[in-house]
Design a protein that fits this description.
Strand 1, helix 1 and strand 2 form a beta-alpha-beta unit. Helix content is 34%, strand content 24%. The model has no long low-confidence stretch (mean pLDDT 92). By secondary structure, it is an alpha/beta fold. The strands form 3 sheets. A 7-stranded mixed sheet has the order 2-1-3-4-7-11-9, sandwiched between helices. The longest helix is centred in the middle third of the chain and has 15 residues, at 61-75.
Length: 184
C-alpha cells in the first residue's frame, strides 16, 4: 500500500485516479483545488507518490506549470506522475505534434507551458513520469489501454486512463519520460 496525494482530485481525471488508487487499497490524500505552490510542496511531503492532474487557466501556463513542477520536486515525494498532454509527444524523432506546421497557434502557449514543467522535472533528480492522454476522452471503458507512442485518433476513457496511472503506481516501469495512453 502506498501513500498517494492526488492534486486535481476534483477534476475528471484526478477523481478517477484517486478512486482507482483507493480501490486498490492505497492511502489517498485528495486535493481538489490548487492549494498554492508552497502549500502543494508541504502537502506532498511524506507521500510515496504525488499525482498532478491540475490546470490553472487563469495564469500564464509556463509560469504555472514550472512552479507546479518545482513544488512537486521540492516535496521529496518518492515518485511524481503528471497528467500531460499528447501534443508534446513525438511524431518522429525530435518532432512533436505541436511542431507540425498546421498546429493552431492559439494552443501553443498552453502546450509550451506544459513543456516548461516537463523541463523542470527533467533537470531534477526526482523519479518522474508524464502520462499523456491520446485523442479525445470518450467512449465506454474497456478495462485495457495502450502505452507509448499511440495513435492520437484513439479514444481514451477517464476510467482506462486512471487504470494506467494506478498500474504505474503499483508497478513503476516508466521513469524520466513521457508516454502516451489510449484505450484499446
Amino acid at each position: 500500500m502506498a501513500k498517494i496525494v492526488v492534486f486535481g482530485a476534483s477534476g475528471k481525471a484526478g477523481r478517477q485516479i484517486a478512486a482507482v488508487a483507493e480501490s486498490r487499497g492505497h492511502e489517498v490524500t485528495k486535493i481538489g483545488r490548487d492549494p498554492g505552490v508552497q502549500a502543494a510542496a508541504q502537502v506532498a511531503a511524506g507521500h510515496d507518490v504525488a499525482v498532478s492532474a491540475v490546470a490553472d487557466l487563469s495564469r500564464d501556463p509556463a509560469e504555472f506549470y514550472t512552479e507546479a513542477a518545482r513544488a512537486l520536486v521540492a516535496s521529496g515525494a518518492g515518485r511524481i506522475i503528471v497528467v500531460g498532454i499528447y501534443t508534446l509527444m513525438e511524431t518522429s524523432p525530435g518532432v512533436r505534434v505541436i511542431d507540425s506546421p498546421d498546429f493552431p497557434d492559439e494552443h501553443k502557449p498552453f502546450c509550451l507551458g506544459h513543456a516548461a514543467g516537463i523541463e523542470v522535472l527533467a533537470r531534477s533528480n526526482a523519479d518522474w513520469l508524464v502520462m499523456s492522454p491520446a485523442g479525445n476522452f470518450g467512449g465506454k471503458p474497456t478495462g485495457t489501454y495502450l502505452l507509448g507512442q499511440v495513435d492520437p485518433t484513439n479514444e481514451l476513457t477517464y476510467e482506462d486512463f486512471a487504470q494506467a496511472v494506478a498500474d504505474e503506481i503499483d508497478r513503476p516501469t516508466h521513469h524520466h519520460t513521457q508516454i502516451g495512453v489510449a484505450s484499446t
